[in-house]
Amino acid sequence: MSPYDAPQEEPAEHLRFAAYLREFVQVTGAEETVLVKQLLTDPDQAMAQSAVLRHLDRRAAVLRLGPVFEPWAEHTFPDNRVMVTE
């Protein structure tokens, strides 16, 4: 039997990453910022930051097409300036 034939258990950080992305799909409004802050307390910082960045990339790609991008960016990143380029 090859090691590739044996069922592999999914690492815990992979399961949490997938769960976090599912949570982001369901989150709305002010809950988004709360979820980001909560997620960034995960002990696996590389995974947590990756999940947050994946979410932000997805949200920005959708929002940048409409008038809600700048208000969302200002709310999400209150301490940073967001530069929008066409």
End-to-end Cα distance? 55 Å
> What is the number of strand segments?
0
Arithmetic mean pLDDT: 83
Binned strand content: under 5%
Helix fraction by DSSP (H/I, runs of at least 4): 55-70%
Rg, Cα atoms, Å: 16 Å
Total count of helical runs of at least 4 residues:
4
Uncertain stretches of 5 or more adjacent residues? none
Q: Mind explaining what this structure looks like?
A:
This protein is mainly α. The protein has a domain at 14-20 and 31-76. Helix content is 59%, strand content 0%. It is built from 4 helices and no strands. The chain has helices spanning 12-26, 31-39, 45-63, 69-76. α1 (12-26) packs parallel to α3 (45-63). It starts with 11 loop residues before the first helix and ends in a 10-residue tail after the last helix. The model has no long low-confidence stretch (mean pLDDT 83).
Short descriptors:
86 residues, mainly alpha, 59% helix
Task: Describe the structure concisely.
With 86 residues, this protein is mostly helical. It has 4 helices and no strands.
